[in-house]
Amino acid sequence: MEQTYIMIKPDGVQRGLVGDIISRFEQKGFYLKGLKIITVDRALAEKHYADLSAKPFFNGLVEYIISGPVVAMVWEGKNVVVTGRKIIGATNPADSAPGTIRGDFAIDIGRNVIHGSDSVESARKEIALWFPEGTVNWQCSSH
Ligand code: CMP
User: Fold this and answer.
1) pTM of the model
2) If pLDDT is split at 50, 70 and 90, which confidence band does 43 have?
3) Tell me: the pLDDT tens digits for 57-116?
4) With bands split at pLDDT 50, 70 and 90, how would you rate the model's confidence at 139?
5) CB of 9 sitting under 6 A from ligand 1
6) Residue having the nearest C-alpha atom to atom 7 of ligand 1
7) Boundaries of each Nucleoside diphosphate kinase-like domain copy (predicted)?
8) Which of 40, 73, 112 best tests ligand 1's pocket when mutated (most atoms within 8 Å of CB)?
9) Which of 54, 83, 94, 123 could disulfide-link 4, Cβ–Cβ 3.0 to 4.6 Å?
10) Nearest C-alpha to atom 1 of ligand 1 is from which residue?
11) Which residues are annotated as a binding site for ATP?
12) pLDDT for res 138
């Protein structure tokens, strides 16, 4: 079954949005397979965003991610990568529709509350990076 990596960024944790965000994924029908709150060190943040290392906003992005705890999660379910990105909304909150997480809670691309893997391959790499200890293996009877 498909899995994705979802991370509530420091602004989302500090603003008390964790419960609402988890509810949206649960209510859609996805299954929570991994969850932890961690303060990220610079090396992990830089590795996660390595593809963006040449971007002018890279240093600011890393500072933002290490500025406070994040909630790292693995969600599972049919088409969870693409559907998870729809639940999250467009990267730039100026373009994200009301009803999406960023559409409802963010106005600044540099403080956009949440991250979600952009492909099945990215999800595989990100889950391995953030959950080297592995995730739980449970299934709902209807899953
Ligand atoms: P995320 O989904 O975590 O993937 C890459 C992140 O880079 C993105 O969300 C934004 O937080 C950040 N980002 C992308 N473009 C910009 C930008 N122009 N300025 C600042 N941050 C950006």
Assistant:
1) 0.95
2) very high
3) 999 999 999 999 999 999 999 999 999 999 999 999 999 999 999 999 999 999 999 999
4) confident
5) no
6) 61
7) 1-138
8) 112
9) 123
10) 115
11) 9, 57, 85, 91, 102, 112
12) 84
Which residue's C-alpha comes closest to atom 3 of ligand 1?
Answer: 115
34 half-sphere exposure, CB direction, 13 A CA radius: 20
Quick one: which atom of ligand 1 is closest to the CA of 112?
11
Tokens (6 digits) for 136: 């739980």
**CB of 4 shorter than 6 A to ligand 1:** no
Mind spelling out the 3-state secondary structure of the chain?
A: CCEEEEEECHHHHHCCCHHHHHHHHHHHCCEEEEEEEECCCHHHHHHHCHHHCCCCCHHHHHHHHCCCCEEEEEEECCCHHHHHHHHHCCCCCCCCCECEHHHHHCCECCECCEEECCCHHHHHHHHHHHCCCCCCCCCCCCC
Task: Give the whole-angstrom CA distance, residue 102 versus residue 13.
Answer: 14
In short, whether 110's Cβ falls inside 6 Å of ligand 1 is: yes
Whether 141 shows a pLDDT value over 70: the answer reads: no
